[in-house]
């Protein structure tokens, strides 16, 4: 199998992955910083999991707001 890094298909794939990952990472990092969850912030900043870690954090592990 020939894998060409200069092909338009590869470029399109990289752009699509970036468009998918960047918004998730931005929101998750913002929420982790606002909630003072340093370990989550560092893990999401360093690891690139194609937004799987960020989505997991946002839906299951972030601190919930308490309604008064």
Give an overview of the whole structure.
This protein has 68 residues and is mainly α. The chain has one domain. It is built from three helices and no strands. It has helices at 8-34, 38-46, 52-61. The longest helix has 27 residues, at 8-34. The protein is elongated and about 55 Å long.
Q: How do the strands and helices of this protein lay out in sequence?
A:
Layout: H1 8-34, H2 38-46, H3 52-61
Helix pairs in contact: 1-2, 1-3
Helix percent reads 55-70%
Percent of residues in β-strands: under 5%
Count, helices = 3
Class by SSE composition: mainly alpha
Low-confidence stretches: none
Taking Cα atoms only, what radius of gyration do you get, to the nearest Å? Answer: 16 Å
In short:
This protein has helices spanning 8-34, 38-46, 52-61.
Features:
mainly alpha; single chain; 3 helices; 68 residues
């Amino acid at each position: 199998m020939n894998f060409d890094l200069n092909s338009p298909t590869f470029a399109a794939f990289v752009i699509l992955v970036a468009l998918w990952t960047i918004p998730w990472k931005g929101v998750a990092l913002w929420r982790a910083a606002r909630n003072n969850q340093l370990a989550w912030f560092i893990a999401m900043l360093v690891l690139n999991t194609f937004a799987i870690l960020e989505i997991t954090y946002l839906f299951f592990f972030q601190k919930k707001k308490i309604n008064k």
